[in-house]
Amino acid sequence: MSAFERFLESFFNPKLMLRYWPDIAQGMLVTVEIALAVLASGLALGLGLALARSYRIAPVSAAIVVFVDVFRALPPLVLILIIYFGLPSVGVNLSAFAVLWLVLSLVLAAFAEEAIWAGILSVRRGQWDAARSTGLGFGQALIHVVLPQAVRLAIPPLTNRTIAITKNTALGTVIGVGEVINQAQTAVSFSGNATPLMMAAVGYLAIFAPVVALGAFIEKRFAWRRA
Amino acid sequence: MTSGPLAANGAERPILQVRGLVKRFGALEVLKGIDFAVAPQELVFVIGPSGSGKSTLLRCCNRLEEPDEGSIMVDGVELTDPRCDINAMRRRIGMVFQSFNLYPHLSALRNVTLALRKVLRKSRREADEIGRAALARVGLSDKVAAYPAELSGGQQQRVAIARALSLEPKIMLFDEPTSALDPELVGSVLATMRDMRESGLTMVVVSHEMRFARDAADRVVFMDGGRIVEEGTPEKIFTAPENPRARAFVAEIAR
Ligand SMILES: Nc1ncnc2c1ncn2[C@@H]1O[C@H](COP(=O)(O)OP(=O)(O)OP(=O)(O)O)[C@@H](O)[C@H]1O
Ligand SMILES: [Mg+2]
To answer: Which of B52, B228, B252 to mutate to test the pocket of ligand 1 (most atoms within 8 A of CB)?
Structure first.
């Protein structure tokens, strides 16, 4: 057997592909589910926090800053382990799926708040002045005039960050969430062959290549000229 | 607009009445006791050196800046009264900015209709109708769908004027409306303002467009160091000001 054949045998073994594709597909489905759930709740929470911070109520802003700094600084894996193994000891039992979703949502929310808040700050004062001078209230000016511009500014940094964080769904494998890496690892330990991991990699490509392309499209779409 | 019998006997209440206005930024006193009144249908020009407080005065008149002392009455309503509904008052005080401040994410028409919809709670159809009429009035009927980035500076400023006009303000405040414009675009904005003047709108204009002041202003106010140091007819202020600082300033801008 040549080296090349041995390489194919241990990374792209057709028999194992056939045997494990349903597991991998099942894992991909779980990955997509968590990624979508994280995307929705993380961005919504981040947006909510950025809006709350706009009102510049000192204790509220301080709490948001602490939250953002903590969740940006700590590696998501640490948070996952702490919450998964720590919460039961205080009587809260969350499923592995819920813990993964919760942690990644909070991490994404922290980065989203940061990006949107930076966007809000960089909208020029004249925009507020114009809006308020026509009688719009603070909240109306924020929602209808400032936020649309802030979100456009936030989209490029946020797109990459969002992709990076949704890829962290792979961390779920350490607490036994049946996402694609977890399925692949199980298959690897049964078969003693790396083929299932390669399948998982292809699965990631299938999920995230379109997301990356969509991200690039969104970035271009929203990169409008400032008047 | 009906100017009524009051106008005839000259006893009309001023649209804008500022008394003893003081504004500080930290330790810096920018307005040092301004008394200033604008009668209905009057066009008042405000001139003065950079930093003399012209913009701050205008911005206090709709409380974009909070005055520290003094009183500001607009159409008989005290703006500094805590019970005053400032958002309701602001839509009666149009403001036009040096840098236009159009909303870049909205078309010309949506720039105009936003406040109509959200402040005056007009239906989309009614707001669009008013918005189109306002844009027509400033000569931009063909630009309703254009975004600010697609418009020249002069066109953007006229959209900004339409945005303020559409709310039917009692008074319009202009802060250097033409000074960010290329010289060849100034004329279109001044023509629009002249048109508004002829329709009887009350206006306060911070600007150094002397030619426009001479043939459109009723009165010119010269500010220096946070005070109004001289006021009079354009003729008087531009040809024979009494205050030496005003004289130097007028000589400077006339060059
Ligand atoms: N938000 C602010 N914070 C601190 N200082 C300010 C602020 N706005 C204005 N000032 C100061 O107040 C003074 C008056 O400013 P203002 O903009 O009213 O002058 P101006 O007469 O409009 O000048 P210009 O002709 O340059 O526009 C200046 O010294 C300025 O630096
Ligand atoms: Mg100014």
So the answer is: B52
For residue A195, give the amino acid letter. T
- The answer to whether the beta carbons of residues A152 and A224 sit under 8 Å apart is yes
Instruction: Record the tokens describing residue A15, joined without a space.
Output: 């028999």
Distance CA B3, CA A8 (A): 92
State how far the Cα of A217 lies from the Cα of B27, in Å rounded to an integer.
50
* B181 DSSP assignment: S
Give CA–CA dist B201/B40, Å, rounded: 8
CA dist B114 and A131 (Å) reads: 9
- CA neighbours closer than 13 Å in the CB half-sphere of residue A44: 6
Q: Which CATH number describes the domain made up of A20-221?
A: 1.10.3720.10
Q: Where are the domains of chain A?
A: 20-221
Flag if B90 and A225 touch (Cβ within 8 Å).
no
Hey, how many other C-beta atoms are within 10 angstroms of the C-beta on A223?
11
For chain B, the structural domain boundaries read 102-168
Query: Is the Cβ of B66 closer than 8 Å to some Cβ of chain A?
Result: no
- Provide the token pair at B235: 């003729």
Q: For residues A207 and A32, is the Cβ–Cβ distance under 8 A?
A: yes
pTM for this prediction: 0.89
Per-residue pLDDT, averaged over A14-21, amounts to: 89
Nearest CA to ligand 1 atom 29: B51
- Which residue has 């919760």 as its token pair? A102
3-class SS of residue B93: strand
Cα–Cα distance measured from residue A132 to residue B97, given in angstroms and rounded to the nearest whole number: 13
* Chain B residue with the nearest C-alpha to that of A138: B87
- Residues A16-42: what's their mean pLDDT? 92
What residues of chain A lie within 8 A of the CB of B94, using their CB? 133
Q: Percent of chain A at pLDDT above 70?
A: 97
Residue B213: how many other CB atoms lie within 10 Å: 21
Contacts of B73 (CB under 8 A, 6+ apart): B14, B16, B17, B18, B19, B79
